[in-house]
Amino acid sequence: MSTGTDVSLSSYDEDQGSKLIRKAREAPFVPIAMARFAAIVAYGLYKLKSRGNTKMSVHLIHMRAAAQHFVVGAMTLDMGYSMYKEFWAKPKP
């Protein structure tokens, strides 16, 4: 006897690794943005020692702005890629 409220639990069964791989296939630019974000943070920490007489708050604001720039740029590229796949790369029936 089926009540029509059966819910597939397959999305709850996947572990973190397979979920990340699935998301990377759906939106390939997001992992790139995450890697660039981590690289900007690492670069900012490395350059923290040689910032001269620049205030700490100014240095952190510049690093945050650079990291956000890469993330927003990657999201924009991903949106364009998704639109391309959806509207132009589909074969016409």
UniProtKB/TrEMBL annotation:
Residues 1-93 form the HIG1 domain. The keyword Amino-acid biosynthesis does not apply. It comes from the Eukaryota. It is found in: Mitochondrion membrane. Pfam families: HIG_1_N (PF04588). Keywords: Membrane, Transmembrane, Transmembrane helix. The keyword Membrane applies. The chain crosses the membrane at residues 27-46. GO terms for biological process: mitochondrial respirasome assembly; negative regulation of apoptotic process. InterPro entries: Hypoxia_induced_domain, RCF1. GO terms for cellular component: mitochondrial membrane. This is HIG1 domain family member 1A, mitochondrial-like. It comes from Mustela putorius furo.
